[in-house]
Each structure stands twice: as C-alpha cells, then as structure tokens.
Amino acid sequence: MIGWLRDRFRGRMPRRMDAVPDRLPPCAHGGNCVCSEHPDAAGFVPPLVVDDDPRAVLVWLAGRLRRTPRCRIRLQTVDYLHAECESRLFGFVDDLELRVDKEQGVIQARSAARLGRCDFGVNRRRVAWLRGLLTPPRSD
C-alpha cells in the first residue's frame, strides 16, 4: 500500500500513553473500544483473571504478544504494557493496554481503535483471545 495512505490509517497515538496510568480510561463509546476498569461504561469486558502472580503473567503475555504478527510493544513496566496491533489489510492501529491490578489480583485490559467508531468486534475478540491464553484446557 502507498506509504502516505497507510500512515493515514495508523492514526496518532494518544498523548496520555506517554506515561503509565494509575487506571485505564473508560471507552468513549463501545463501538471501537473495550475496557475492564469501568463496569458501568460502554464497552465493558471482565478483567483477565490469573491463577499466578499477575506481574509474572504480564511478562508471559508480553512474550506472546511479541510473537504475534503486526503487534509491537511500545511500553512495558512491571505493572503495565502498551502494545500497538495493526490490521492486516489497511494497517489500522489499535492500542492494547494491560495493567496489573494488585488490589484485585487481576490484569485490567483495554483495547481501542485509534480511528473510526466501529471495529467490527476486533478489540473484543483480542481481549477474549488473551483470556483464552490464560484459561487452562479442559480435560473432559
């Protein structure tokens, strides 16, 4: 794809992502964003429940995201991860944020498209995929 056109589809990274947040922001609307921090807001998804130390799980998820095509980690600390996930066809960029919630012993998740008002469920499926990675297989 033509470089300048692809750059238009990327959108700009929100300025707030220059620093590690104490709490993930709510979604403006649920059409292109999901977030586990705000149960009463649009786009709510449950947090990622972990059976192990959430910080260790975050490190493991970071490794898995590094091996995921078109996904790159922009910022990682012991309690926070910000990754950019790019769509295959047009190069639309979604921002994925994972935050260790020490009080609840879970990982809070937010995945949001930078552009548009509809993501056709991509961000919800991304968080569901992460949840599936943490769910042990059933032995029926």
Structural commentary:
By secondary structure, the protein is of the alpha+beta class. It has a single domain (3-13, 31-134), classed as 2-Layer Sandwich (TATA-Binding Protein), CATH 3.30.310. It is built from three helices and six strands. Strands 1, 2, 3, 4, 5 and 6 form a six-stranded antiparallel β-sheet that branches. Strand 5 and strand 6 form a beta hairpin. The model has no long low-confidence stretch (mean pLDDT 87).
Question: Can you tag this structure with a few keywords?
Answer:
TATA-Binding Protein; 6-stranded antiparallel β-sheet; globular
Using the 3D structure, state the CATH architecture. Answer: 2-Layer Sandwich
Largest sheet: 6 strands, antiparallel
Question: Would you count the extended β strands for me?
Answer: 6
Rg for CA atoms: 15 Å
- The SSE order reads HEEHEEEEH
Q: What is the terminal separation in angstroms? A: 47 Å
- Flag low-confidence runs: none
Share of residues in helices: 10-25%
- Structurally, the number of domains stands at 1
* Global outline: globular
